[in-house]
Amino acid sequence: MSEKINRSVARALEIMELIAQSKEDLTISEISKSLAIPKSTTFDILYTLLEKGYLEQTSEKQKTFRLGMKLFQTGAHYLDRTPFRDVAHATLENLVETAGETAFLAILNKDELVYLDKVESPNSVRTSARIGSSNPLYCTGLGKAILATLPDDEVRAILKRTGGLRPVTPYTITDEAQFMSILAQARQQGYAIDDREHNSEVFCLAAPVYNLHGHVSAAISVASLFSKVKDDRQKIEVLGKMISAAALELSHRIGYRGHSLYVSG
Asked: The HTH iclR-type domain covers which part of the protein (predicted)?
């Protein structure tokens, strides 16, 4: 442990992280054993956190503990003071720097995709997508990333409301069975693909972003010229894992507590 780290503070944080990750309330003995902290030290830390409201005692007899309301309130202050767009913009910048491709942020609004932000790479595709403009869900990577989080019946209802799978480019998927199969594949791999379905020269990979309540609030993507990736399956997989990891990290930063982007992911 670094000399600059206070051991007691570090142990208190380790205890709260352990309790947060546990599905069951934990006893003093369980915490002490799991973290290899002396029982007397564990007792002192637990009751300090209990007194300050960061933990709650759920059983006086068994002396089991869970996270307290004060911890939630502290986290809520962080969320209040961290505007979503600012956090997301930093994520897009990191993606552009790492992937060398243009990155986008979009939100769902009345069955349409609305672009909220973009960061362009000088070495990647420049698109005409303007902040505030909208596009269909079914033919964009961002839209498909969001649709893949929904049950199939809800997806079909959205397609029906919005006029179905109309061709936008020669590569737009217009067969419903094929489209549903592709959404299933997105759930499995953790990201959605737009293979020239909205722009004949552009290939996109996208993943959903969840909010504090576990609802999809947005999606992020990286866009590349198709000519750069068409024969490079490995690069596509690398970019897919990159966008999936970035979307999950962004989701966690705004309060999401899940461990994957899709139920089957």
From this structure: 6-69
